[in-house]
Amino acid sequence: MLDHRLVLVVLGTCVWGCASGGSVPALSAVDQEKARRQYVGNVYALGSSLYVTDFFGDQERLFVDARPFDIVDLYHHGGGKVPIGAPSGEIIPAGTPVKVVAVQYPVDPVKATFEEPRSELAPTAHTWLVLERADPGARRTPLVMVLPRELSGIDGLNAEVVERLKSDQWVTQWLTERAPLMLSGIMRKEPAAGMTWAELQATLGLPKNAKEKARSDLLEFVADYGDLQVTLQGTKITAVSGRKAEALAAAQGAQAKAALAQKEAEQKTQEEESKRARAEMESRVAASVAAPAALERRPSHEADLKARLAAARKAKNKAEVERLTRIQQAEAERAKAERSSERLRERANAEPRDVGASVTAVDPQLAAALGVDLGAAFVTAATPGSEAAAAGLAANDIVTSVNDIAVKGPKHFGALVASAEPHQRLELAVLRRGAKTKVVMGTEPGPTLTAPEDPPVVDKAVAAAPTAAAPAPEQSSSAPAARASTKVASATTPPTRDTPAPATATPSPSASAALPWWRDQFHFGIGLHYVFATTAMDDARRWSKQWFDAAKTDRGANATLFGFAHGAELMFVVSTPWIVRAQVGAAGLYDLGSVALAMSTDPQTGQPLPFVATGTVTGHAWAATVPVLVGGRLPFLDRKLAATVDLGTDIVVASGLSYEGGGAFDDWPAAKVPGVPFGFVARAGATYHIIPQLAVVVEGSMRRFHSPQMVYRKHPEVSVVDFDGKPVSLDFSGFGGRVGLAGYFF
Fold this sequence. Notes:
Structural class: alpha+beta
Mean pLDDT: 79
Largest sheet: 8 strands, mixed
Low-confidence stretches: 1-25, 457-518
Strand content: 25-35%
Number of strands: 31
Distance between the termini: 73 Å
Number of helices: 13
Shape: elongated
Oligomer: single chain
Helix content: 25-40%
């Protein structure tokens, strides 16, 4: 009978494999042991100031992290999310020396159940870095840093450690050189305007949207730290705001306004009461003074007195009604202010709305073809199961407005959607395959959408020089709300005590970037092509035939006179933002012909030879030209395929015709074309981009080059004529084609 512990271990292993999924780090046992030897026992410096709280109910350890706890996501090995307690108020400052005590990897669930009763409260799906403060006089309570759930092997582990731990040189050469005000903000974990991106990381660690920072086209970046939002222009902080603080300030302002209105109403009521009391007192005094006379005139004035008393009661009742009305209005204003503040608090605590649509900018050519504004948003994908996909939004749709607000670019579209409340009705005007349609998401009413517009579209060919350090595929305009494909590769070299270890990032080009000619800018390319064509070399054939006939030769079945040319071509391409392009390059054409000869008569004297001279004569015709063309390409099929047409001139820089004799025929003439003749080339075909930087070219062409009269190479002053005295020229005219590759650079 199986031991029940063995059964539990087997079941726990199955549960661990099923529940944790991809949470186990991709580290072999050898890599795990290597990481322990590499880090355990070494002393480093904290790269960021840390928040502190108890370790999930364990008072003998502390949980530490540089980020605000509300943006830290931790998971148990069973798949559940682990809540984090509130920070204790203690802050361990950046630069504090710490010693690595242990590296603990995700635990086996059964082992955790038997050996760690509190394991269900801890994030056991993660790797732990256990530290101990090494500064004199500090408590030696273990500090636990929880690394991300997914680690890409030993390199991923090293990258996460580099981000959190630094060397002594980092402290002396970077941290201590900060301005006193900035250093104080780092130690207190209080970001301030004027801080750099590196100082912000030392203060609060990396934000939730850190990957977006690597995008080279972002003029402004808002670092998301949960409740705290930090705005950067370039690498400098320009603003720091808190959502809850803004909501609280708005609520307090509304309450203060309501209290002031109530106070004013009560003050006005008191003034009217005082005025009425004075009026009554004055009337009583006047009545007491006039009492004797009134007694005498009582019969005549009794009716008048009753009328005045009735008027006073009416005025009093009216004042009371007005007082109650003002109190009700003040209460209504206060209730409205409370509802407004509650709504602001709900919006501050809510995540920005994300409908699941990836968008990019509409390029000028497509905008001109469809008649839409350059600022519209081009939908590249709708996430399956998302709000956008459920509403019917699809790839290749063009969004022109949201709730009748014209979209001014992908960033503007993302900001409009993010400013909407959850489930608020969004009406999107969409252009789909040239037809206008409407896509509706959400059903509830909401406030008017507001968002900053994208910067205006600028022709990059005439604008100021772009930043040379930015990689080309990342220069395309895309909004922060649009989903970016940029990835950041962190440094993988582990920190040591002797060398500083700042994390580095290298952006990699996106494979889904727009194709070169579709961009709103000039771009350049180089193409290498194989050229083939039939040739109409009438004069060369005629001259060759006369030579062979004069020698009374038998050309036989293996005779191949000129008629098909081969060559290579290297072209330099300049394309404009308006689809027009210009090309200049170098081309070489070569034609080969051969014939078997059997000469029995001297062609000069006509006398029979004492023997039959045999051999093979090979003819070579060539031309080196410089094609100069102007044309264009029209992209379609998702911008990967383009129809091309080009027309231009051929400048012939060198050309000629020669023969090589075999056997007895070893002294045949060679000719060349004097001067620099011209011809023309016309091409039409297609270009298919395998990737944005590499294309396959297939084109049909027509080339016409008819040269002047040729001269002999050995005797350039003597013109070449046939046996009838007619001049001989070189002609490479005909129809053919070319295939090859074109590579683009920027």
